[in-house]
Amino acid sequence: MAETTHTKVLIIGSGPAGYTAGVYASRAMLEPVLVEGIQPGGQLTITTEVENWPGDTEVQGPDLMVRMRAHAEAVGTTLVSDHIVALDLSKRPFTAKGDIGATYTADAVILATGAQARWLGLESEEKYKGFGVSACATCDGFFYRGKEVLVIGGGNTAVEEALFLTKFASKVTLVHRRDSLRAEAILQKRLFDNPKVEIIWDHVLEEVLGGDNPRGVTGARLAHRDSGETREVGCAGVFIAIGHSPSSELVKDQLETHNGGYVVVEPGKTATAIPGVYAAGDVTDHVYRQAVTSAGMGCMAALEAEKFLSEGDA
């Protein structure tokens, strides 16, 4: 018989937002249950050095998430190795179904399911993730000081990443599959005016080139969109900048979303349109997408949930 667990606060998803929500909800004596999902720790588990987490000059992404997880557990968060496959927000208590067959009911829900960078699906791309292939310039750009890098894409994300990388890299080459960019005009002007930037039009990334000892990127093979003719470009890093996909599938038909699926919350808060349901981190944040802002939103969500429950609405 499938097990049913009731909690005052159900946190769906881990990562900085989820674990921080667990810490604050536990300290508020709400005895939260946190369902970690299929990738406990989120995107930071596939990041190597993190140098912008306050208090750590440098920390490995997976190590940071191990510490955050341990902190949440130490203060009383119940951690569950399960993946929520269905969530009913139509009535309270809210009901969630886990992949292992368990049922969770809750008086309040905090969505911390994050977002996933969109990838091209290349075998070589997967091989060098974290070793020269990245989807976050603000996370990893610092490591390419004085080096040449490639950015793949043509929208706002790609242009913003390319411009950011010019602060560190000696040269930034933007590779776009079309003959014009989709980015906003003002961003395009800044890109075209930057002397560090070169654009390769009408090409796609065919293969990331690199070595194994040590593992690292040395270049990329590009293919012309029409002729198929290939060329190799040397670089130390390849940034895939074709956008992010928020992991909002559970609520896409129950909560308002925008900008490609990000959950809408009240301005300056984490509350959604459904009382008792909150969204924190990358599932709602299409602007900053940083570990520190996700953690802050996790804190906000837990405090808002505590206030909601203490006011007798539960």
Indicate the CATH architecture of the largest domain. 3-Layer(bba) Sandwich
User: What's the number of extended β-strand segments?
Assistant: 21
| Class of secondary structure makeup | alpha/beta
Distance between the termini: 28 Å
Question: How many discrete structural domains?
Answer: 2
Q: How many helices?
A: 7
Rounded to an integer in angstroms, the radius of gyration calculated over CA atoms is 21 Å
The residue ranges in which pLDDT falls below 50 over 5 or more consecutive positions are: none
What proportion of the residues is helical, as a percent range? 10-25%
Query: What profile does the largest beta sheet have?
Result: 7 strands, mixed
CATH superfamily of the largest domain: FAD/NAD(P)-binding domain
The overall pLDDT, averaged over residues, is: 94
List key phrases describing it.
FAD/NAD(P)-binding domain, 5-stranded parallel β-sheet, alpha/beta, 24% helix, elongated, 7-stranded mixed β-sheet, 314 residues, 7 helices
Describe what you observe in this structure:
- This protein has two domains: 180 residues, FAD/NAD(P)-binding domain (3-Layer(bba) Sandwich); 122 residues, FAD/NAD(P)-binding domain (3-Layer(bba) Sandwich).
- 24% of the residues lie in helices and 31% in strands.
- It is built from seven helices and 21 strands.
- Strands 1, 2, 5, 6, 7, 8 and 21 form a seven-stranded mixed β-sheet that branches.
- Strand 15 and strand 16 form a beta hairpin.
- The model has no long low-confidence stretch (mean pLDDT 94).
